[in-house]
Write a structure and sequence with these properties.
By secondary structure, the chain is of the alpha/beta class. The protein has a single domain (16-133), classed as 3-Layer(aba) Sandwich (Rossmann fold), CATH 3.40.50. Helices cover 36% and strands 17% of the residues. The protein contains 4 helices and 5 strands, in the order H-E-H-E-E-H-E-H-E. The protein has helices at residues 2-11, 28-42, 86-103, 119-124, and strands at 16-21, 46-51, 68-70, 111-114, 131-134. Strands 3-2-1-4-5 form a 5-stranded parallel β-sheet, with helices on both faces. The chain starts with a helix and ends with a strand.
Length: 138
């Protein structure tokens, strides 16, 4: 009986999980995204990370084990006044990233984990039946 339940659990298709993150560097939010992505991948889920900035030379080593796609790196990360405007720029980059993934990337996914609340309404525009999770980091 227990073997049958184990086989049934293994035969259930695992969801495809898409992470949207503004800048995949070496901070605490990035560590959280990578740990969650690696844990889901270890459980058999298909995991992809989309980001607006990714430098393989300045990131956690584990990020190189995952499929990471980068779009919008040409958008500014700040306005040049000692870090002022970084939040506004991150917001704009995430809007661009979410729109790109929804309308141009041709990605298949079941679940979206988004690091900023802006992605929730944009992700809901994709297709019915998708689950959207937000992890807003302040």
């Amino acid at each position: 009986m227990a073997e049958e339940q184990g086989r049934e659990r293994d035969s259930v298709p695992k969801p495809s999980v898409l992470f949207l993150h503004p800048d995949l560097g070496v901070g605490g939010a990035e560590r959280l995204v990578l740990d969650a992505a690696l844990a889901l991948q270890a459980r058999g889920c298909s995991v992809k990370i989309w980001t607006a900035h990714y430098d393989p030379g300045h990131c956690f080593a584990e990020s190189r084990e995952l499929p990471v796609r980068c779009v919008g790196d040409w958008l500014p990360r700040g306005l040049g006044w000692g870090g002022l405007g970084a939040a506004v720029c991150a917001y704009v980059r995430m809007v661009f990233l979410a729109l790109y993934v929804l309308f141009l990337a041709d990605e298949e996914f079941d679940v979206v984990v988004c690091d900023q609340a802006i992605c929730i309404p944009l992700s809901l525009c994709s297709e019915p039946g998708h689950t959207v999770l937000s992890s807003v980091m302040c």
